[in-house]
Amino acid sequence: MRPPVKFLSSDHATVPVQALRAEELEDVLDTLPSAQAAWLRATGFTGAIGDRQLISDDAGRLVRVFAGLGTPEQRRRKRFGLAEAVQGLPAGGYHLETTLEGADLDEAALALLLAGYRFDRYRATGEDLPRFTAPAGVDRARIEAIATGEALTRDLINTPANDMGPQELAEAAIALAQTHGARVAVTEGEALLEKNLPLIHTVGRAARRAPRLIDLRWGATGPKLTLVGKGVIFDTGGLNLKPGASMALMKKDMGGAATVLGLAHMIMALEMDVQLRVLIPAVENAVAGDAFRPGDILHSRKGLTVEINNTDAEGRLVLADALALADEENPDHIVSFATLTGAARVAVGPDIAPFFSTDETLATTLAQAAGEVADPVWRLPFHDAYEAMIEPGIADLDNAPKGGFAGAITAALFLRRFVEAAPYTHFDVYGWQPSPSPARPKGGVGQGARALLQALPKALDL
């Protein structure tokens, strides 16, 4: 696990970064020394998102930076705009001066930390980055915990499958547990059958690297919260082999597992009063002589049988056993995260995390929380009328209904069959930033975790 993401200590000498909204510009210009105001006007500084001007003294030393936060319309269209303005500042220490407050200030503070994220495991950049002190008025520990959890999620997704197999994913969970005094149990290979986790074993048995179930626990008081993350470290599609273009990003198919580990860090670092459990079925969906086949009928931990109509719909299979295991403890809530369906991307694109929930309080709270923390989510329905679409007749369930309609919903309905006792929420995330945006370089990205973290206190009555 990389070192925690932290603000610069306040005892460092720092240069002020004056961040202002476009609509504040004229008022600010009236308060500035005439030379600075003239310079901003001459250089065309408008306060747009990404707009930046550096001010030097007579000796050429940097003494102030002006950073644009954009117009109201720009801010509606683009999150973390401050990160775009501070990206590329000269190395050194800075502090923020702004009229922002509340959720807007928190977003700006997180932008300052996330702007410094680099995935440099394979390519040393030697890049010296600007560092910021914590803005006055923010909960420094909370922002740092969120940024560190997000960096962990990104690192795990960005790591290619040759260095991120089931074992390495388990090692990441163990390292996280050691940081926070949690405990981890890992069930591996044939032991999955002994522990009645047959679907996890079946999906992962063809790979050279044995499948695993990772089980992390932390906390002794408070409501019981169980997070379940899809940990398919690479998905070839199995015998229903994906075409090459569709396989190119399949290192990110463990994005659900990466997300719950990042979220678990946030929860533990903030010492939330919950009994946390994290379950991750970690497998590789590979092609070999003992791979499961189309037409097979598999038995699950819950006793439900599943007809396999496409081996590329394997994520819901491994999640099914993990969800059934989670449900047996009757926790106060179960939440799953998975890079599960292309249908979800067609529905809402790569930037929004669709979710399904049986808990109206959590669903309502999530929608509000998402706006507060700039982590967009959108509720999709557990539409009961589609239940017949996942019932093939020859078995209890069909893992890949024909027809192509409502793919995200039918996948969610499939998962819901394995949760009976507990309230259940499922996120179908993309886990990938397809092009660079402020504070989010191209590559792995967390989705839904910050919104859920914000919603949990109200949803679980903490």
Automatic annotation (TrEMBL):
Record-linked Pfam families: Peptidase_M17, Peptidase_M17_N_1
InterPro entries given in the database record: Leucine_aapep/pepB, Macro_dom-like, Peptidase_M17_C, Peptidase_M17_N_1
GO function terms (MF aspect): manganese ion binding; metalloaminopeptidase activity
Assigned GO CC terms: cytoplasm
Protein keywords: Aminopeptidase, Hydrolase, Manganese, Protease
PROSITE patterns: CYTOSOL_AP (PS00631)
GO BP annotation list: proteolysis
KW Mitochondrion (keyword) present: no
Sequence ranges assigned to domain Cytosol aminopeptidase in this UniProt record: 310-317
Domain of life: Bacteria
Similarity-based family: Belongs to the peptidase M17 family.
Record-given protein name: Leucyl aminopeptidase
